[in-house]
Design brief:
Helix content is 36%, strand content 33%. It has three helices and four strands. The longest helix has 16 residues, at 16-31. It is α+β, with helices and mostly antiparallel strands and 101 residues long.
């Protein structure tokens, strides 16, 4: 299995209220992919980091294997969420993919 973890920072120009709205929309959009993408076993978006955090939200997902992760990246449902709800609002993305047993 493969874990796929992403940390995002939202654009600095957003107010606290705008950030909360964007985080809710990203969470809803990404978590709605559960059951729609082959090989995607779990997906969760964390939006309530502590004040010590330097990221605004985190995606934590689990895939059957690396091939399933690659398929997720180009799957039309994922691309729709990424292009419509995530990329327009983020200034930085950090990703770590790793194998788990």
């Amino acid at each position: 299995m493969v874990k796929h973890v992403i940390l995002w920072q939202l654009k600095d120009s957003y107010s606290v209220e705008q950030k909360e709205q964007v985080k809710a929309e990203i969470k809803q959009g990404l978590e709605s992919l559960q059951g729609k993408i082959p090989g995607l076993l779990e997906i969760q978006v964390h939006t309530n980091g502590l004040r010590s955090s330097n990221a605004d939200l985190m995606l934590e997902s689990l895939f059957e294997d690396e091939e399933a992760l690659q398929g997720y990246g180009v799957h039309p449902e994922h691309v729709k969420v990424a292009d419509g709800k995530v990329r327009p609002h983020t200034k930085q993305r950090i990703c770590l993919d790793y194998e788990v047993s």
